[in-house]
C-alpha cells in the first residue's frame, strides 16, 4: 500500500490536494463557508456550519445510528477528575456571579443593587491544593438541569482567569451604566446616582474580598515563582492601562519581597474604589428637585471643544487661524433650545414627560414589570381599543416607501384649515399606534387623582411599541 501510495502522491501536498477534489469539498462553496483547501489550514479547519462540532462526551452507536452521550454518562466523567482528600489545603472563595452576555451582566448587577442579601447571588467555590497537577477549584451545581454536571471543576489557573475576565467585564458595565454619575457636574443633581454609586462601591469592596481569598490560595502552593501571582499567571492584556500605575508604584517601594507587591488587579480595584467613593461624594442627593434634576435629554458639557485648521483662512498651511469644531457646537445649541422650549410648554418641569415602562399598567391586567427588555415589547403592552385598532401599523399605507410618491395633505378636503399638515407618505403613515384609538376614558390613561404619573408610565408602552413596529416595518 505504501509503495503504491508514494507513486501516486510523491509529496505530502499532492495528497492534500487530492482531498480537495472530493465531491463535498468541491461543492461546498458559498458565502457562509470558506473554500476547502487542505493546503490552507486557516480556512479548512476554521468554524463551519456544514460540519457539526464533535459532541463533548462522544457518541453511543448501534447498528442504525449514533446519538450524543449525556454529560452525566459514566464515560463522560474525566479520568483525572480531582477528588479532595483530608490533606488538601482548602480555600473557600465566594464569587458574586455575573453572566457572559452584556444584558446578563447588567441584570445581575441590578439584582445585586436591589437586594440586601448578596449571598443569594454568589457562587461558592472551594479551591483545593495538594501538589502540582493535583489540585482544583470546585463549584457544586445546585440548580442544574438534567444535561448539566453535578459540579464544575477548574484548575486554579483557569479559575483565576475566569475570575479576572468577569471582573473586567463587570467593571466596563459599571462605567457604562454610571457614565453620567461618574462625570461630576456640580451644577446638576442627577436622580438615583447616589444609590447606584453606593452600590458600585459595595461591588468593588466585595471584589476586593474575593481577590484576597484568591491570593490566599495562591500562597498555599509549593515552589512559588518570584514576582507573585501576576507574574505567575501572566498579565491580562485588558489591564494594560493599569500597568503604568503599577510600575510607578513598585519603583517607589523599598520592600524587596516582590511576592507581596501590588499586583495589577490590586491597582485596578484600588482605582475602581477611588472612583466609586468619588462618585458617592459628588452625588449627595438621590431624589433631586425637579428644577435641578438632570434629564436624559440634557446635553452633556465638554471641557474643551477640539480645534481644527480653518481651510478658509487664506493660509495654505491652515495654521494661522484655527476654529472650534462647529458641528458639535451647533448641535448642542439646537438641543439646548429644543430642551428649553419643551420645558416652557410644560411649566418648566421636563420630568413631567418622563415615564418608566416597568411601572406601567396595560389592558387585561398586564404589568410593565414583566417586560425584561424594551426590545421584547409586544402588543400586550398597549392601552389601545382592540375593537378599533390591531396595533401601531394597523391601516397604514403599505406603499409609503414607494419612490416618487408626492407629498399630500393630511386632510385633503380641508386644506385651508390645516395647511401645516402637508407631509410625505412615510411620515403620514408612520406606525403611531393609532393614537386616536387609545383608551383614555378609563384605565391607567385616565389620570385621575394619584394616577397622573401612571399615565406617563403606561403611555410609554404605546410609544415604545410604535418605535419597535416602525423599525421592523422599515427593515422588512
UniProtKB/TrEMBL annotation:
Residues 159-225, 228-286 form the Duffy-binding-like domain. Residues 281-323 are annotated as: Disordered. Residues 91-144 form the PfEMP1 CIDRalpha1 domain. InterPro entries: DBL, Duffy-ag-bd_sf, PfEMP1_CIDRalpha1_dom. Residues 288-305 have a biased composition (Acidic residues). It comes from the Eukaryota. This is Duffy-binding-like domain-containing protein. It comes from Plasmodium falciparum Tanzania.
